[in-house]
Every structure is written in structure tokens, then in C-alpha cells.
Amino acid sequence: MQLIRALLVATMLLQLFVASAGVRGRSIADYTHQRWSEESDAPRPVFALAQDGRGYLWVATALGLFRFDGIRFEPVSTGIDLVEHGPPSAILVRRNGEVWTNFERSGRFAVYRNGQLKFLDAPRAPHRVIAMKETRDGTIWVLTERIGLPLMRFQGGRWTSFGIEAGAPLDNPFSMVVTRDGTVWVSFTASVARLPPGGRRFEFVRRERGATGRLSLDPQERIWLTERRGTYPITGPGGRGSPPPLRHPYATDSAKIRGWPIFDREGNLWIATYYDGLQRVAAPDPRGAASAAEAVSRVERFTVHEGLSSNATAQVFQDAEGNVWVASEDGLDRFWPATLRSEPELRQPAAFGDLLLQARDGSVYIGEASAVYRVRPGGRPEAIFRTKVEPRTLCEAPDGAIWIGTDDREVVIWQDGRTRRLGQKVPVSDTIYDCAFDAAGNYWVTAALGGMARFGAGRWERMFGPTGDAFLPKSMTADEHGGILVQWNDRTLNRLDGSMRSAVPIPFGSYQPYDVALYPLPPDTVYVAGRFGLARLRDGRFQSISARRLPLFSGLSGMVRTPDDHFWLAGPGGIVRIASADLERTFSNPDRTPPMQVFGPDDGLRSRPHSHSRHSIVRGGDGRLWIATQAGTLWLDPNDVSRSRTPPKVAVSALVADKLYRDPTAVTLPAGRSSIQIDFSVLSFSNPHAVRVRYRIEGQDADWIEAGSRRQAFYTNLAPGTYRFRLIATNEDGAWTEQGAAVEFVIPPTFVQSRWFALLCGLLILAALWLIYRLRTAQLASRIRTRLEERMGERERIARELHDTLLQGIQGLVLRFQSVANRMPAETASRAQLEAALKRADEVIADGRNRVQDLRGADEPADLPDLLKQRAAAVDFDPVPTIRIVVEGKPRRVDPLVSIELGRIADEALFNVARHARAGCVDITVRFGAHQLGVEIRDDGIGIAEDVLENGHKPGHFGLIGMRERAERIGGSFSIHSYRGMGSAVTIALPGRLAYADHAPSRLFSRLFPRRKEPSRG
User: Fold this and answer.
1) Omega before 261 within 30 of 0, i.e. cis
2) d(C-alpha 418, C-alpha 414), whole Å
């Protein structure tokens, strides 16, 4: 038993070995190629290339130094006079992120840091710089073209030159490599030398006149020499020891080499030549080629004939993702290992798409325009049948024979290396469309408008009558039980099982019916694909995924399920890979968008899968997937998918406001700047179309914004503040790189936008409101004062009239009556009566004069407390209470008009106290406030009745009403407070601007708004 197991294992390993040995290695034709040249406005010629840690590709050209993000060539050396300094000739990206270059004419070194390219304070290079390298300890080595002074070193802040005194030959330097241990290797026209770490003199390892060799390092750090005899190693791994015995050097032509050869990370040698384009040797053997013929055949070439931008190439460079870049006289070229590869034998695609058939033994059969090929597992295409008539169908019979239906309705049978014709044409009136074998071994053929036929028992038979709208047989296949599945007409799928026929409508939805592709998969499941999307028939019921929801599912013409439980779908949108579990969940929830990988032009899909093929993708026994495209058949190995394993990088390249801020991280913009432009880059060169980018300003944008193909973001009407712009990206795996890139920028406010300006405006508004208020109050005070003055003037007029007319007239009468009395006898009763009358008349005149004096008010004291004291003294109290005058605050001069009115109010209040209160004590309080004058007259009498307080007066009495009216006329407030048995208090309060004679606002208003003087009247 163990022996049997060992034999089985050995057999399986042998099969795997044979299969892997049969699949050819990747050639230069198996790379996708893209170029940037004159048509894409690329700067040219290109001299040198490098890549920084963020992913930018740095490009030294005759037009200056640029950095490239896959879309834009951004000039970096703007402002440097290239006429004086010449173009940059070499680039070095240091481990600390700095980018160094050297300008050819002036020999000056420049460094890019903090968004600016500036010249270094360093010695000038003695000649054009060819290369710059950095060792692990940060030492920089510079190779120049100067004969006798080829090498410069920058270490510890000091520059050192290595020339003739260090043993350098009087010879042209050509190339330089540095191994990991710090050894520097330099090639000259006739020699190769090295400078060990810490060494001071060159050590020569080879001398050969006219070799003109260039050096390169393979992944094991062997030193390879490419010279006039070819390419071969000159050391063992690590740059130490001797190489293995050389059989034949690879036949590269050193006379055409311009730059230096490089090995990519996969071990392939790339060589930039001066007139013959690009050369490549796939994984060269350190022992060399086995024969002279192999030495020549292993050197591949890629020139302008294949699409290279120019045959004059300068340098080859491999970036972090694995892209190989070529600098040329006319631009830039990129090579990326293609996932989909072609076979040189398959060069004549069929007009309606190559036919693909997966046989049970693992072979794949490919029908092209004039031949049918067989591809064994791990093998190359072998022609098994050649014809002048294009094959139209391929089917495998139960015995393994391949039945080939041709365009002239012939059937050719191929089996065991021999072909034979069936001898009878298919009895249909149209081109053969599809074919299948049923469980009984019968051969079925559809022909759409030509109907359907079956071959069995040695003869053909027309099936199901003539064609019409109800019968247009097209796509056909056999299910796992041997039943025939056929697209019966535009809308119906039928299953034929012997004499039984069942029909199911195809769920086209609102789409127009069209041809479909059928894929039966166990257990008892049939997939139907078409323009409408993808449907699955299981247990007699369809489930659908609409193409409107997933456009990639529209027009699928091929489907394969691989052992790793993934589906591969071929359609106009490319090759789609989706996990079976994700597809199952999408059928259960058609609104769901599943994670998918899409393979397109960047992966080598040079043409879309052919729309007329019913099986545009099949799987061979070696696991390779074969795809029929418009331009021919390609294949891919699911285990060798060329995808960048590094997450996509993004960078904010510039912020543009009043000026350009390159590589910003934190920027303070000019005050008041409200519009900005942010330029960003997606630094993924291998799968740029698979990268999605989002951006947002935190706190400004409600959600992430999809950038699409744009690489700029514009913002307008930004308010002053601090902002943070973020950028994230994802590739086809759907996982977003949350770290992404970010830039913070501050927009300071202008003075008008600042808080101080807002505060100032608030203060000005408050001041204006205060001024308006003061002016209004002054205006009101002036009006009140004017009314008081008018009243006073009227009283004075009345007083004058009384004095000048009534009193003077009475006085004259009294005098006349006195003269009459004087002439009468003194003892008579008449004279006594007349004297008594005259005495009474004198009293009336005196009282009239007092009344006139009261009307004029001219003698009212300006001191309010004294005035109130006099008024209190004049009241006829019975009994006389204790009267106290209380002054609060600093006394001020009160306007005479106000004093008069307050005196009148005090008279009435004191009269009421004397008449009704029966008080023992009366307190008169005068409060001089800064903004208010108050007068309070309080007694300890019996108080005022509640009904009088509620009504504001006693019926038939108007004392309280008069006091209130007088207070309101002078702009004051009046209130009475009384509690039964506890006395009462009369309070008058009025603003200081009205009460005080020296109040400023009144004078201010009088200056601003002087009253017009009334004209005098005669």
C-alpha cells in the first residue's frame, strides 16, 4: 500500500513538473506597455529616473527636473536658469527623503526639501554627473565623467575626491554600483575597479582594452559586466569570490549601450541601448547561455516598431510596485508584468470570436479562423486541424472525440491525432450556431433561423419543425444529467430530455431579448447570462442580478468556477473575479454590491472578450484560464496574478491660494483668503484605474467626496478658521487606507473679519444706540422744559396783566376813595365805615400782590430742601407735628421750573397731612442721585383709605389727581403708598436730565438742535 501511495505521489509530482515545465516563462511581450511622449506633452529627452518614499517618480530632462504621478509632470526646478546651469543629469533619493540632483553645465548640486529645490553649499562636480548612490550609513558616492577624477564622496558633512592620487586611471568612467557592504565598483573604458569600505585607493579586478563595460547587480548582488563581447558575471554573490565557469556570454551589444543595465527584482536583466531600443534577458543564468544560439535567442528586444517611444534610451528603472521604466530621447515608457498573456501561435482570430472548449482530460481546444489548436495541461498550442473554412462549433463526444462544425455545415471529427469527415452536412438552412451531446450520445446542432437538427444512429434528423417567432434555437449546452438546455426563442429556455420538453421564461426584465450564454453547474443549477445581467435557475425558479445594478454583469459571454471557489466572468467590462460566497449573497440580495477584482487593459487585456462567443472563458487542466477576445485568445494563471501588493499611496502635492505651496503639511494662508485649490496625486502606477480616491475637509464637508478621475479639489467661500483636508484611497480590494494624506491650513481673518472688529462694531452700535437714546431723552426733556417755560411765561403774563391792570386800577380807586375820606369829618360814622372799607381794600391789594408774586415764582429759592422747608413752615398744622428735612446725596441746583412744581406738589401733600392724617411726625426726604432726583413726604398718621388708593382720588376732591398730573408734566413719576394705621408716603421721582439745572445732555441737545427764536411782537 505504501508503494502504491508513493507511486501516486510521484505521478502527481511528475505531472506538476511537466505542466510547469511546459508553460513558458514571461517574455517582454507579456508586459503591458504605456508611454508618455510628444502626444502626452511629456518633457523630453529624459536622462535619469528615481522614486521617492511617497511614490513620486522623479524625472531629469533637458527641460529641468520634474516629478510624475502618472498623470502630471510637475516642474520642480522652476526658477533655475537652465542656460547657466544646464539640465539635471542624475537623481538620488536619500533615505531621509531628500532628493538630490546635479546640473550638468555648472556642476552645482541641488536638494529638494520642504517643498523647495535649493542649491547646496557644496563643491561643484568637475564634470557631468553620471550616477549618485547612497550607502547604508548615509555616505553619498558621485560618479562623474571627468577623466582622472571620476569619484566624489560626501560623508560626515565633508566632500572628498578620488582621482589619480587614489589610483584612478586616465580613462573614461562609464558606470558605478555599490554593494550592501559599502564597496564601490566603477567601470572604465578598459578596466573595472573597486573601492572597499574605508579604502583610499582603487583596486582593479579586470583590465581589457576597449571593453567599454557597464556594471549591474543581480538580486544576489553578483557583479555583472555588459561589454562588447556580451553580458556575464564577474563575481559571486555579494560581490565576493569568482563566478562559475562561463559557457557563453549573453549576446548583448555593448557598443549600443547608453545607460547602465539593471536587474529587476525577479532577476531579469534590462538594458537601455543608444540606437536599438530596449534589450531584455529573462532570468540569465550566472553560468551564461548553454550554446551560442541560446546566447543570441535569449536576448529580447523592444523598439519603436513595438511601440517604444524612442530607440535612443538612457536608463532603466524599477519602482517600488515592480513597474519597469525606460527613459528615452522622446519621453518615458512603462512596462508592467501582464496577468493575461498571449501565445505566438494564436495569431489568426476567428471573425465571430475564437471557439473555446474544455475537454474532460484537461486539454483546451481553440478554434481560430483557419485552424483548431489543442493545448495540453502545461503545454503550448498544437494545431490539430487546419481548414480554409472557419470552424463554428466545438463539442466533445462521450468517447472523447472532438466534433468540429464548420461554416459550410460540414462536421469534422478529430480523435487520437486523426481526423475524419462525417460525410453528411447538417440539414439546416443557416449557419451552425451551437452544439451539444445528450446522455444517449446524440449530437445536437442549433442554427437559429435554420432550426435544430440531431445526429444519431448514423443519420441526421430535423427537430421540432420549421422556425418562427416561437422557435429560434440559439445557445445550447448539456446539463449534468445529459439533458439538453437550449435557448428556444428570444425569451424562453427549454430542457430536452428524451421525449420530454419543459420551458421556463428567461428573466430579461425591461431589456430587449437577445442571445444568452448558458453555464450548467452541479448540483442542478444553470446560469444564464446576457445583456440583462446574470440569472440563476435552481429548482425551477430564476434569481437575477440586474445589469442596471452591476453594469459589469451586462453582456457576460463566459463563466468559470475555479477550485478555490471563485467565479471568473468574462464580459465587455473585462475579466471579473468574485468569490462564490459573495455571488451567492448577491443573488439573495440583488441590491448588494459584492467585492470584485476586475482585470482590464492594465492587466494585459488588450481587447474585450468577444461578444459572439458563447464560452469566452474556459479552464484547462493546469489551472490556466483561456479567454477569447476580439483580438484573439489570451490566458492567465489565477495563481500568478500581477497585482501591486502595496496599498495605493496618495499625496497632497500642492495648495494654491495667493501662491503655490508645494508638498504642504501645515500652511497659514493670507488673511481673508476664501478660495483655494488643492492638487493631489494617486501614486499607484501598476493599477491606476483600479484605485478610487475620496477627499473631504473635516467639519466642512458632510461626507467623503469621490474624486473620480479628478486630481484637484476646489473650495470657495471659506470662512476664517483652521481646516484639515484629508485624502484616502483604495484599490480593487475595497479597503480604504485611512491614514491617507492630510494637510492643515489656517485662514486668518482680516480686521473686518476679526473678533475685534465685531466687538468694535458692537461697541459702535451700542454707542450709537446710547447716543440716540440720550438725544431722544434730551429731546423729550427739552419739550417738557419748553412746556414748563411756556406755562411759566403764561403765568408771568397773567401776573403782569393783574399787576398792570387790576391791581393798579384798584390801587387808583383806593387812592381816590382815600382822598374823599380825607375830606370828610373825622368823627362821622360814614368816614369810619369808609376807612374800614379802605383798610380792607389794602388787605385785598396786598393779598393780590402775593398772588401775583406766586404766579411769577421769581423769588422761589433754587435750594430745593430750603423751598420744601419753607412750604412746610407755611402749612397751618393743628397740632403742629415734628417736621424733619432729610437730604441724601450731594445737593445739586434744581431747575427753577421743577422746583415750582415740586413745591406745589409738596403744598398739596402737606395740606392733606395737616387736614386728614393726624400725624405726629412728617419726614421730607430729598434724594440727589447721579441720574435721578427723588422727593418723599412721609407721615405717621392714620393712612389713606383703600378705596381712595384704588381710585386714585376721593370723590369730589382733586388733590391727588393734581399732584399726579404735575409730576407727569415735568417728566416724573408719582406714587402713593399707605397702610391703614401706619401712615402714608408720597414719592416723586424724575430723571436728573430733567431735574438738574446743570445737566449736560440738555445743553448738548440745545447745541445740536437749537430752538428757533420766535419773532418779537410789538
Assistant:
1) no
2) 6
C-alpha distances in angstroms, 44 versus 328, 334, 788?
A: 8, 15, 98
φ/ψ of 646, rounded to 5, equals -90, 140
Query: What is the C-alpha separation between 869 and 877, in angstroms, rounded?
Result: 14
Separation CA 533–CA 556 (nearest Å): 7
Residue carrying the nine cell digits 433561423 = 449
Residue 733 scores a pLDDT above 80:
no
pTM of the model: 0.74
Helix (H) or strand (E) holding 905: helix 896-912
**Pick the residue with more confidence: 941 or 231?**
231
Q: How many CA atoms lie within 13 A of 200 on its CB side?
A: 1
b/e burial code for range 82-93 (CB count within 10 A of at least 16 → b): beebbbbbbbbb
Residue 208 CB: number of other CB atoms within 10 A? 15
Instruction: Give tens-digit pLDDT for 237-283.
Output: 999 999 999 999 999 987 777 778 999 999 999 999 988 999 999 99
Cβ contacts of residue 689 below 8 Å, gap of 6+? 600, 601, 602
Q: How far apart are CA 232 and CA 287, in angstroms?
A: 8
CB 610, CB 353: distance < 8 Å: yes
**What is the per-residue burial (b if ≥16 Cβ within 10 Å, else e) of 674-713?**
eebebbbbbbbbbbbebbbbbbbbeeeeeeeeebeeebeb
Chain centroid to Cα 969, Å, comes to 71
Q: Residue type for 925, please?
A: T
CA-to-CA distance for 56 and 651, rounded, in angstroms? Answer: 9
741-747 and 666-668 beta bridge pairing = parallel
Q: Among residues 139, 135, 48, which one has the least CA distance to residue 90?
A: 48
Distance, CA of 234 to CA of 240 (rounded, Å): 9
Q: Which grid cell sits at 105?
A: 553645465
Chain segment 654-704, per-residue pLDDT in tens: 999 988 999 999 999 999 888 999 999 999 888 777 788 999 999 899 999
Q: How far apart are CA 647 and CA 821, in angstroms?
A: 137
Largest CA distance in the chain: 190
- Helix ranges (H only) for 913-956 are 946-951
Cα–Cα distance list, 267 to 260, 280, 639 (Å) = 16, 11, 20
Q: State the distance between the two ends of the chain, measured CA to CA, in whole angstroms.
A: 153
∠ CA 478-480-485, rounded to 5°: 30
Element holding 559 (H helix, E strand): strand 558-562
Cα–Cα distance, 411 to 423 (Å, whole number): 8
Question: What does residue 504 show for φ and ψ, rounded to 5 degrees?
Answer: -135, 130
CB 273 within 8 A of CB 313: yes
From 446, 474, 405, select the one nearest 612 (Cα to Cα). Answer: 474
Summarize the chain as % helix, strand, coil (round to 5). Answer: 20, 35, 40
Would you say how long the chain is, in residues? 1018
Give the DSSP H or E segment for 840.
helix 829-856
Is omega for the bond preceding 881 within 30 degrees of 0, making it cis? Answer: no
Q: What does the CA dihedral 323, 327, 332, 337 come to, rounded to 10 degrees? A: -20
Dump pLDDT digits (tens) for 927-957.
998 889 999 999 988 888 777 777 767 776 6
Give me the DSSP letters along 755-817: HHHHHHHHHHHHHHHHHHHHHHHHHHHHHHHHHHHHHHHHHHHHHHHIIIIIIHHHHHHHHHH
| 446 close to 473: Cβ distance less than 8 angstroms | yes
Q: How far apart are CA 799 and CA 788, in angstroms?
A: 16
* CB contact at 8 A, 852 and 805: no
